[in-house]
Amino acid sequence: MSKEAGVIVLGFFVSVLPILGFPQSWRDILYILCGLGIACIGFLLRADHLRSEHARQAHSSEPQRATFVDNGGVHLGSSSDIVPKPEESTAGRV
């Protein structure tokens, strides 16, 4: 059974568990076991996904693209572009 099918089966079991007639203590244990099973399968699926992404990037012929994009697109050449020059200051004007 695939991991995806396991998640579906456990989810279905959790949905019908209240109507199966188990005693409350058994039901609580079964809920805990199903939750742990779903969590473990989720971690395994995540590991498989990361492994396949890593393999895809390693075998890719395309160069890595930068993921950082500067907001606004303004390039400041030096700190003098940020601080106004004294003759441009409006502090002394009335």
What does the model show?
This protein is an all-alpha fold and 94 residues long. It has a domain at 3-59. The chain has two helices and no strands. The chain has helices spanning 3-16, 24-58. Helix 1 packs antiparallel against helix 2 (24-58). The protein starts with a helix and ends in a 36-residue tail after the last helix. The mean pLDDT is 79.
What key phrases describe this protein's structure?
single chain; 94 residues; 2 helices
Secondary structure layout:
Blueprint (H helix, E strand, L loop, with lengths): L2 H14 L7 H35 L36
Helix pairs in contact: 1-2
Morphology call: elongated
**Structural classification:** mainly alpha
Mean pLDDT: 79
How would you sum up the major sheet? none
Order of helices and strands: HH
Compute the number of strand runs.
0
How far apart are the termini?
81 Å
Helix content: 40-55%
Rg over alpha carbons: 29 Å
What ranges have pLDDT less than 50 throughout 5 or more consecutive residues? none
Strand content: under 5%
Q: How many distinct helices?
A: 2
